[in-house]
Design a protein that fits this description.
homodimer; alpha/beta; seven-stranded parallel beta sheet; 14 strands
């Protein structure tokens, strides 16, 4: 086995830079190259290569981490790269995962590669928690709460409105609901009962605040089903307090075992920077993909198919000694 | 594949009965037999068989769940049963896991069986969390807190003291320390800073309370390194409030990613009944062991070697659709 696992990054936005930092923190991983459609515009610690030239790197990369967008890039890039490289991605359009899996699986099998799709924290770590907890507690109720954190999709939706110069949207679990769930209640919840949506908007000079607020609060699919609050702030306040990308949330399962005893399990994440944490998850899973591929595994897989010991830099013997 | 996975239980104490209840809650598992050294004394929903006759059941049991004590039963039973059956156990003497693993591995390989050791919640689910979190966040600090919950070992140690009729010991995380850790501090902690030990003692009539309290608080290995509180109570109060077996705790990891952002992950359990929850974990892992053995895997393994998707009654396709 090589001393270092050679990682390639495709797409150099926030997530790609998060992966780069995670690789730098991992002694057994090295960044071999960054692939991008705009090679002249970016700087990295590794060689920056036009994405069309990736074929030249088939013998120089062990695992390619795909950091493009789930809507715009991965539907095409996922299968394309899976035919040529082992890959890891964070495809996060939950409803389209089965179809995406099939396409990546066919491509990866064709190339003799292993491709992990939908890694990260949700899907990813939260998927692990949902499956683990509900397998242990049959008939239990599982909830996923997100936040407090920045939702990129919702922020973009607000930014597109006329009269909006800049905006950010925070998703926040409803505190009273969280308290009920942690106390062991298992209600059916509407979206409104589960999350609040809080927007900070920098308006264009002279924009109609009431019109903006109404447009946000009535936006179907994004805000209409939620309790939404809109705050108008200055550009200075935005720059000072709202440029970070914190996120997090939790998966919580409450069930009863045979004697009627209530049992509760929870996985909680509190992240100061979402893309850096997601990048760290992808880097650890790249290590696992490399090892499983060396053992002969090919095709597409999800985090549910990967033993957690494969994520660790330590050997199984060391893990049993120190971590079990 | 059979419609039901046939489970055997070896040892019918609290844990064995917890496994029985978990199997009853799982439509794809059925309890084939309970094996015990005292067959005349117990009643179960399944046939009760003297443990010496287990050899007759080699074709009638898919996975044997070993529910004996880690100190007294498993060191002998683990390798013995691994030679004849697929097994799952909850061997929890952390320091002896490597040696136990080797012995079970040799026996399981010899019999062509698969044996999962050290399952349950700690070791078990907490081992998964320690490995997962520290693999994602290299250089991070991971803490394990237990409680509030009943420690059987500490309760037994108190009960053995002269003048003690009945006793229970609760392990409780130190609230101020928990608060510091959740806020993101990463101190080095002594045992005293991490957990309190609270004892409820029913004294024999005329017993010397001061002598009992001193004997508890100075007991090396169990109490001397902790802040310990001793409450003397009546037999009635004990029966009313202290016969349950609640437990729980959490694994929490705080680390920084490349940009200096603090990232925190936590797995938390809150259990009204420890043996029933542990039994439920073992039952889910029995499902995984059955499947992996059918795929040809043999020898000893730990929870770190098992993909979490194998725990679920659902197929991989269903899981990708509903849970990822």
């Amino acid at each position: 086995m090589r001393k270092s696992i050679r990682i390639g990054i495709v797409g150099y936005g926030n997530l790609g830079r998060g992966v780069e930092k995670a690789v730098a923190q991992s002694p057994d991983l090295e960044l071999a190259a960054v692939f991008t459609r705009r090679p002249g515009q970016i700087q990295s610690s590794a060689p920056v290569v036009p994405v069309e030239e990736c074929g030249d790197y088939r013998d120089k990369i062990d695992v390619m981490i795909l950091c493009g967008s789930s809507s715009n890039d991965l539907p095409e890039q996922g299968p394309l790269f899976a035919g040529q490289f082992n890959t890891v991605d964070s495809f996060d359009l939950h409803a389209r995962i089965p179809e995406y899996f099939e396409r990546v699986d066919a491509a990866a099998e064709g190339g003799g590669n292993l491709s992990l799709i939908s890694s990260g924290w949700d899907p990813g770590l939260f998927s692990l928690a949902r499956v683990l907890f509900s397998s242990i507690l049959p008939g239990a109720k599982t909830y996923t709460f997100w936040g407090k954190g920045v939702s990129q999709g919702h922020s973009v939706a607000v930014r597109r409105l006329p009269g909006v110069r800049q905006a950010v949207q925070y998703t926040v679990p409803v505190p009273e609901t969280v308290e009920r769930i942690r106390q062991g209640e298992t209600p059916d919840l509407t979206p409104r009962e589960q999350h609040l949506r809080i927007c900070y908007v920098v308006p264009e000079p002279g924009a109609d605040h009431t019109a903006i607020e109404t447009a946000i609060k009535t936006m179907p699919g994004y805000f209409a089903d939620y309790e939404t609050t809109v705050h108008f702030i200055t550009e200075e306040e935005f720059a000072a307090n709202h440029t970070g990308m914190p996120h997090g949330g939790f998966v919580i399962t409450t069930g009863s075992t045979g004697g009627g005893y209530r049992q509760q399990a929870e996985l909680r994440l509190k992240l100061e920077d979402n893309p850096e944490f997601t990048g760290s998850v992808l880097a650890a899973y790249a290590r696992a993909v490399y090892r499983l591929h060396r053992e002969g595994k090919t095709g597409a897989c999800t985090v549910l198919d990967i033993p957690l010991g494969y994520l660790a830099p330590e050997s199984p013997v060391e893990l049993r000694k120190k971590m079990v």
